[in-house]
Give the backbone structure.
Amino acid sequence: MRRIALILAGVVFAFASVILAQAPTRPKPAAPAAAAASNPDEGMTFALTGDSIITRKLSVYHEPAFVKLIDLVRGADAAFTNLEMLFHDYEPYAMNESGGTYMRADPALAADLVWAGFDMVSRANNHTGDYGVLGMRLTTQYVAKAGLVQAGVGESLIEAREPRYLDTAKARVALISVASTFSDSSRAGRTRGDMPPRPGLNPLRFTTTYVLPRERLEALRGVLRDLGMRAPESGDSLTAFRSRFIAGEKAETRTAPLPEDLEEIAAAVGNASRLADYTIVAFHTHENGGSRPVPPQFLVTFCRAMVDAGADMLVGGGPHALRGIEIYKGKPIFYSLGDFIFQNDTLLRLPSENYESQRLGANTGVADFDDRRSANDTRGFPADREIWESVVAVPRWKGKTLAELKLYPITLGFGQPRTVRGRPLLADGELAKKIVGDLIERSKAYGTTVAFENGVGRVVLGARSGSQ
C-alpha cells in the first residue's frame, strides 16, 4: 500500500508541475517592508502621499514603473495616504450635499491599499459626509478590518480630533487628520450630556476678512444702501453677504484659523508628541492664497503652529496639485502632495443629484455623466495636466533630526483613457524633471531649495534651508 501511495504521489506531483509550467507568470512586487530586515542605523523612513481616490484594484498590475513605485512605498518603515473615498455597499443613501462627485468604492479595495504598503490613512476631507453618518461608519469599519490606522473622523468632535497610533519596530507614529473644506453637516460636534454628539470629521475652520481701499469700501456701503440692506453710516468696517470688509491700503484677502480649532488641535498634537516618537498632522484644504499652487494664509499659520505644538510632519492634500515645501524649525510642511490615486470617473454608481447637475435623464449612466461634465475630456480634471502629476515624499529621520528628504515624481496618466489613468507610476525623463521643477519653483517662497538629481528631487537641508 505504501508503494502504491508513493506512485500516486509521484503522478500527482508530475501533473501539477506540467500545469504550473504552462500557467502564465508575471513579476510580483517585493515583499512588504515589515517582512524585510531593517537597519536601525539608517533611521526611520516614511512614504508620504497625497489624495487617494481609489475605485479599481491595484494588485493586478505589474509594469516595471508601477512595481518600483510599490516597492518604494513598501520599503518605508511607515507609509501614509489621504483616503478620499468611502467604502460601503450602498446601504446608506446619498446626502443632498456632497464634496462634488459622490465618492464610494468596493470595500475590498481597502485591502489593496494595505497590499500597496500603506499603514496609515487620513479620513477628514470634503467627501467624508457624501453618504452621511452611516457611510462614514461603514468606511471606518472596513478600513479598520483591513488593518489601517485611521484618524480624522469619530462619533464626536473629541473622537474626531484625537490622535491614532501606528507601532513599528523602529518607532511609534501618531496621526492627526483635519479638513478645512467640508460640508457643514459632516462636521463633528459636542454634547453637553443631554443629547448625543454629532458624528463627523475634525474641522479646521477659518475666518475671512476682505480689505478694500477706503473709496471702494464707501462705494460698497452705498451699494448696500441702494439695495435696501443695512450698513453702518461710517466706520472702518462693515459686514455684508456673511463677510467682513475693512478699510486698508490695497485690496486683499486675509484668512486666519478659528482660534478655538487651532487651540484644540494644537492640544491634541501636544499630547500625541509625548506619546509617540513622530507626529504627523494631515490636512485637506481646497482653499488657496490667490492661485491654486499657493496655500491660503490661514493654512500657513496653522501648519507653523502645529510644529510649535510638537508636530514633526505636516502633510497636505485637497487642491489636486502640488504646492511648495517649507522646512520650518527643521520640520517639513508639505502644503500639498497632489494626487496619488485619482480614479474619480470609474465609480460604479452616482446619485440622482450628480446626473441632475448635468441635466441627464433616467436612461443615462456614469460614462454619460463623465462625458458631459468633462465635455469628452476637453475640460475639467481630464484636461488639467497638474491633476495627474505629483510626488511621493520620502523623509528619513535620525532620531528627531530630518536627515534626508527625497521626492519621487509620479505620473497618473494624463491624456490616457479613463480606464487607464488615475493609477500612479514612477515618472522619468523630461516629465520627472518638469514635476520636480514645479516643486523647485513653488518651494522658493519658503526659502526651501530643491535639487533634481538622477530623476529624483532632493530637499537641500541645512541652516539656510526653510524658515526658522
The CA atoms of residues 224 and 337 lie 42 Å apart. The chain has eleven helices and 22 strands. The chain has a mean pLDDT of 91.
